[in-house]
Amino acid sequence: MSQLVFRIQIPTATASVDTIGVPRECLLLRNMFDPKEIEAKPDIDIMSKEDVQEECSKCGKLKHIFVDKNTAGFVYLRFENTQAAIRARQVLHGRWFAGKKITATFIAITCYHGC
Fold it and tell me: Which residues form the RRM domain (predicted)?
């Protein structure tokens, strides 16, 4: 008779937890594109930028946008103020884009410039 073995993982205090972060003027969008698509679509950063800028323009002034092609679809956004970033997070977080579910997390300005 064979035995079934079950593994149960219990989250620990050090486990990675997806949080929205403290509201700030900077947002990190994850999962905006698949890094494997970059070879097939070298202008993916331009396409992603245009799509994000269009959507974010409804929330407030976007001061800067950076599409990091060396990540798992990360797009960094810096708004003129925290209120615009909060509105953008409400609009973008959990939305589907190109078949992928976006997560939007507030990040510190120091991380925006140096992470």
Answer: 25-109
